[in-house]
Amino acid sequence: MLNALNVLAVDKGNISGKVVEEVGGLSIPSAIVSVYLDTSEQAISTSATDENGFFIIKNLKAGNYKIKISYVGYAALIVNGIVITEKDFDKNLGSLKLSSEQNALQEVTITVKKPAIEFGADGVTFNVGSSLLAEGSTANDILKNVPMVQVDIDGNATIAGKKSTRIFIDGKPSDYMSSNIADLLNVLPSDAIDKIEVLTNPPAKYSGDGEGIINIVLKKGFKIGFNGNAGISAGLQGNVNTNANASYKAKTYSLNASGSYRYNINKGESHNYRENFFPDTTFYYDQFGNYKNKNNGGNYRAGLDWDITPKQQLRLSANYNNNLSDNYSVNELHYLGEDLLESRLRNQLNTGNGKSRNFVINADYNLQTDTSGGKLSVGLTFNTNKSYDERAYNTTYMPVTSSPQTLQKNNNNNGNEGINFNLDYDKPVFKKRDRVELGLAFNFRKNDNDQMVQNYDFSTLQYLLNSKLTNQFYYNENIFAGYASYNYRNNGWGIRTGLRTEITDVKFDLSNGGNYDLKPYWSLFPNISVNKFFRKRYNFGASYSIRVNRPRENNLNPQINNVDTLNISYGNPNLLPSYTHQIDISFGAFGQQWSFTPRLSYSTSQGVIERYRTVTLIPGTNNARSESTFDNIGTNNSLAFMLIGNYRPTDKISTNGNFSVIQNKYTSNLNSSLNRDGLSFRANFGFSMQLPFKTAVESNLNYANNANAQGRSKGNITSNLSARKTFLNNKLNLRLSINDVLGNRNNTFYSEGENFRSNNFSTNNTQNFILSLNYRFTKVARNNIPPPPKK
Fold first, then answer.
1. I want to staple 690 with a disulfide (CB 3.0 to 4.6 A). Which of 1, 652, 695, 776 is the partner?
2. According to the model, what pLDDT value does residue 17 have?
């Protein structure tokens, strides 16, 4: 009988406690509490604190455990050494204090894998270190597996259902740091990233730009002592990625540095079929192409975190990245008449090379102004980047005409400079129950795009300047902003309301004439979100905000790109800002082994900025030219429904998935062909399993099918599989990954207008087998984690 009672007690081990703020001791509801076996990399149970900050994890067997407590805006806390035995199976840890992330330098280093995905009313957080697929990769690779995020074939990331998304790094806009964000993300190594936040309703302290923000948070906290890692990965496609980082942390300061190098080969094929129909004639273009691009580049970072005094912290960081490219492509265009018989053939050989370099330096100073928790933060960011792109085009025609061959060179020099300044103050009020935040910001940005086009004169045997296409585009932008927000939290309720105001002053002009000095305009961005946690396992959230999509240099620049003379593109200097009203509603349910979060989002946008395409007949010919530009095409009403969840059937298996369906309805006075409805779909499923002998596997499957104002990007499927084995007490990791297990990625685009229909099919060499090796070294002082309080 005694043995039976002991077994019963062992199977009902409990770990309980209360989560509070370090400053003020206010309870924290909805904090995530994850329980791990002492030797496991997978959480065996995840729960959340109730409206008073309490939690209890039940039904635990005898063993050694550790828990991790995390909450958005606070540094995660680890408690080790929790032992459940037959005689001591009820562990009350008492009050566990979380500190602000700004004080993360003083926290004990987190040594346990975080849950891969954390949910909040205003978005989701993807913890990079918890994914095998993230190891040895780049920011661009990781974003493809983040819930609610979709990445197009050019490497541009957006939040599903949002027309404009901005990429931030450490809370600061990355588009101020690079002329090509995709290039920046393609060389930023995953080992430098702590987590990725998908913010569907950003707080008032963030810029009002974009319907949502993807914030890439870089690692800041380090273990006491000297730590680092070095790794290399290589794939059968010829890609190579090497990286190394090291850090040293003393009592009051830490130093860190990292470097990475990436070499990549992209190649693929395309087929475009376009029907051109006019009142007196109909003809067709059937175009085939293939390309091969080689890219190599590096990313180098260095940082200093210094606790000047217990109330003052200074953080300095610098980042430099460079990229080199070598491009080759061939395409042939078949001209088909109404009878579908070929009348002409155009062959074009394109070669080119490019280079870019970006440098960013950040300085952040934090001061605790009073004993009640008031904080003053000052931040300054300076960035400069330059890119150079040289292209050569050799075009021949069959049958031979009066101009059987043309040669053209395009040289583009592009430079960006920017300064961001922010001053923020936040203070707890009403016995530290609520919090007030105030701030000022100034953003300056300058862009200089110099385009030179030369055509070869066969009579003089030299290249001559094309004055019609050669010009220089200057762009200057100043944004002055101020904001105030108030956060209320009590009895399971959380209410955040804020107001941001921005004054935007933009000027741009072209060297060959045309000045555009826009009148400065003033914008207001209200923001409110309400959260309620109840019955210890449910969370309801609702939010409303106004956002803006400002046209910037890539949209405004009227320089003409005539690489393909029958498909030209240019910007539109007459674009106006587009404002979006958006409402999000979420409901979360949490169990010890699962979580489920449906989300409903509605938005309405006036003057939506999208790429717009027209096809016109070239006078005196039977040729039609496609012109692609941007325009305020009209109004878009969007309704999105998303399902996000995870399930852990055992302590060694974890699954997660998300599904979204988005209804877009366009109404346009610009063109009746833009009055259309469209459904977009996106789905993702992930699976991970911990196996014996320190081995783990992970897989991921993605599907996307998106509609836009003039057509649809038809469904494509991507898949990944990764397996890892650790050696030498987890210091050495060997990983094998297979990208796109089901085959190379295929992309199909359909678009139509008043007098054309177009189908484009392309495939890329995305299927790849990658082998990675990573070694971690450390010399760490013993962590001083206080033991659980005695009962």
1. 652
2. 87
